[in-house]
From TrEMBL:
Source organism of the structure: Trifolium pratense (Red clover)
Record's protein name: Uncharacterized protein
Length: 500
C-alpha cells in the first residue's frame, strides 16, 4: 500500500536551543519518514544587527535548504516581531518574551498556511508555541507538541494541572520534594523558577498551558528510552502519567546537529586548527549555551579556577551580567566592541595564551565537542548541550543557570554518573576558584573522570542505537507517522461529512 504524503508544519520558537532540535526533527521526518515539512523559524528582534549566533543560524538554515535529499523540506523565516513594549522592563522574563513573540507571529503563519497549494494536515509546536494549537483545531490539523528537553521535565508538565496547591506550597515553603508519579522526586534545590511562590497569576497560566499540551494529538520528546527508562515509562503508561495525555507520547531522540567529519571540514577555523595540535582528551570546553551569562565576580573566579586546573581550554566568554543568567538569549551582542580582556582578570589572557583560547560570544560547539582533543565540558546543562556532549562521549562539569537546568545537572551527576556538579557557596552565590579547579581535575584527570568517560561512551552507543532502524526512537517516529496518516484520513472523512 502506498502511504499518502503528509505535510507537517513545524514552528521553531526563537533561540538556537529551540531551532537546532526542531530542524533536526524536520529533517528526520522528511528524510526517513516521507513527510513534506515546512519549518517556520520564528524571529524576534534583537538590538544588534549581526552576531556570531545569527551567522550560525543562517548557516544552519542554508545547510538544511541545500541538502539535495530535502526537496520536501521548506523553511519560512517569519518577519521579526518586537514585543519589548509588552514586557516589564524591571522583571526580565525569558519565557514570556518567547511566548509573546510566538503569539505575534501567528497571523503571518496562518496566512502562509492558508495560501499553500498542499496545506499541512499536521502542526508541530514546541512548548513555547502552544498558543498555536487553537489555530490547528480551527484549520482541522492534528497537533503535536515537541519537548526539546528530557522526559523528567516533560513529566512535570504533564502532571502539573493535577498537583495540588497544598503540595506546591509544601514544596516551596517547607522544601519538601515534589512527587511526580513514576519519576524521581524534584528536590527543592533543583526546582524550577515557576514553582517558587507567588503562584498567582503564573499558576493559572501554567495550568492553562499544560492543559493545552495535554489536549494535543501527541507529544514528542528529545530523549530515548534507555537514557531515562523510568521517566519515559511513566509518561507513556496509562496506569501512571499516560492517562492524562490525549494522545501517545513518543521519545524520538537524541536529535542533535550533525557535524561534517573532520576530513570534510570546509575552510580554516582557528579554534579547530588549534585543537588539531592538542593531545587527545586534553582540552576542557566551557560554554553556557546560546544565552547564558555569569556575573563579573563569577567570571573572575572562573578564570582563576581554570588557571589553577592547569588544563588546556576553550572558553566562550560573554559580557558579564548581574542578576539575569539568560541575558544574552536575544541580545547576542558582540561584547559591545570591548575586547574580551576587559571582562577578565588582569593578565589572564596573556598568561594562558599557550594553553587556552577565549572565544567572544559564540563558538562552533557541535564541531568542538566532536574533536578528539576535547576531554571535558563545563556546561550550563541546556538539553542540547547535554545531548551533544553525550553523543560525543564527553563527560561534564554540570553548572546549571536557569530553567530546568538544575534538574538536568542532578540527573547527569546522580543518576547517569557522567558529570560532577558545581555548587555555589550559597543560593545565587558564586562557585569559587578552588572548587572550579577541583571539578575540572575530577573530570579531566582523576580515576572518577575515567569512569565517567566509560559511562558516557555507553550512553553514546545507546543513543545511536535508539536512532537506528531497529531502535526505539526510530520506532516511535514510525508510529507517529502512522498515527498522522490515520488522523489525516479521519479529518478528510469529517470534512466530507461537513460538506467541505
Ligand atoms: N551553541 C553553539 N555555540 C555557542 C553556544 C551554543 O553552537 O557558543 C549551540 C549549542 O551547540 C546548542 C545550542 O546552541 O546546540 C544551545 O542549546 P542548549 O539547549 O544547550 O541551551 P540554551 O541555549 O537553549 O540554553
Amino acid at each position: 500500500m502506498v502511504t499518502p504524503k503528509i505535510h507537517a508544519a513545524i514552528l521553531a520558537s526563537p533561540g538556537m536551543g529551540h531551532l537546532i532540535p526542531t530542524m533536526e526533527l524536520g529533517k528526520l521526518l522528511a528524510i526517513n519518514h516521507g513527510f513534506e515539512v515546512t519549518i517556520f523559524v520564528i524571529t524576534a528582534t534583537t538590538t544588534t544587527n549581526s552576531s556570531n549566533s545569527d551567522t550560525t543560524k543562517s548557516n544552519i538554515l542554508q545547510q538544511t535548504s541545500n541538502l539535495n535529499s530535502l526537496k520536501s523540506l521548506n523553511i519560512i523565516v517569519t518577519p521579526p516581531v518586537d514585543v519589548s513594549d509588552k514586557l516589564d522592563p524591571n522583571k526580565p522574563n525569558l519565557g514570556q518574551r518567547i511566548t509573546l513573540t510566538m503569539i505575534e507571529s501567528l497571523p503571518f503563519i496562518r496566512s502562509q498556511i492558508l495560501s499553500m497549494k498542499f496545506p499541512p494536515s499536521v502542526l508541530i509546536v514546541d512548548i513555547f508555541g502552544t498558543t498555536a494549537l487553537p489555530m490547528a483545531r480551527d484549520l482541522h490539523m492534528s497537533s503535536y507538541v515537541f519537548f526539546s528537553t528530557n522526559a523528567w521535565f516533560t513529566a512535570i508538565c504533564i502532571y502539573f494541572p493535577f498537583i495540588t496547591k497544598e503540595a506546591l506550597l509544601r514544596h516551596a515553603n517547607n522544601h519538601e520534594p515534589l512527587l511526580i508519579p513514576g519519576c524521581e522526586p524534584v528536590q527543592f534545590e533543583d526546582t524550577l523558577e515557576i514553582l517558587v511562590p507567588p503562584y498567582e497569576p503564573i499558576h493559572e497560566a501554567v495550568v492553562n498551558l499544560t492543559r493545552e499540551i495535554l489536549s494535543a494529538n501527541g507529544i514528542l520528546i528529545n530523549t530515548w528510552q534507555n537514557l531515562e527508562p523510568a521517566a519515559t515509562k511513566a509518561i507513556i503508561e496509562h496506569e501512571i502519567l499516560g492517562q492524562f495525555t490525549n494522545g501517545p507520547v513518543y521519545p524520538v531522540g537524541p536529535l542533535v546537529r550533525n557535524v561534517e567529519p573532520e576530513e570534510k571540514r570546509e575552510g580554516e577555523n582557528l579554534i579547530l586548527s588549534w585543537l588539531d595540535e592538542q593531545p587527545a582528551e586534553s582540552v576542557i570546553f566551557l560554554s553556557f549555551g546560546s544565552g547564558g551569562t555569569i556575573s563579573k565576580c563569577q567570571m573572575t573566579e572562573l578564570a582563576y579556577g581554570l588557571e589553577l586546573s592547569k588544563q588546556g581550554f576553550i572558553w566562550v566568554v560573554r559580557q558579564p551580567t548581574e542578576g539575569d543568567a539568560s541575558a544574552a538569549f536575544f541580545e547576542a551582542k558582540d561584547c559591545d566592541g570591548l575586547p574580551i580582556i576587559n571582562y577578565l582578570s588582569d593578565g589572564f589572557v596573556s598568561r594562558t595564551k599557550d594553553v587556552g583560547i577565549c572565544v567572544t560570544m559564540w563558538a562552533p560547539q557541535a564541531e568542538i565537542l566532536k574533536h578528539p582533543a576535547i576531554g571535558g565540558f563545563v556546561t550550563h546543562c541546556g538539553w542540547n548541550s547535554v545531548l551533544e556532549s553525550i553523543l560525543n562521549g564527553v563527560p561534564m562539569v554540570a553548572w546549571p543557570l536557569y530553567a530546568e537546568q538544575k534538574m538536568n545537572a542532578t540527573m547527569l551527576s546522580k543518576e547517569l554518573g557522567v558529570a560532577v556538579k558545581a555548587t555555589p557557596i550559597e543560593e545565587g552565590g558564586v562557585v569559587c576558584r578552588k572548587q572550579i579547579a577541583e571539578l575540572i581535575h575530577r573530570v579531566m584527570v582523576d580515576e572518577e573522570g575515567i569512569a565517567m568517560r566509560v559511562k558516557v561512551k555507553d550512553y553514546k552507543l545507546s543513543g545511536e542505537k535508539a536512532l537506528s532502524v531497529c531502535g526505539s526512537s526510530h520506532g516511535s517516529l514510525y508510529q507517529m507517522t502512522k498515527d498522522c496518516v490515520f488522523h489525516m484520513h479521519q479529518q478528510s472523512s469529517e470534512a466530507k461529512s461537513r460538506g467541505a
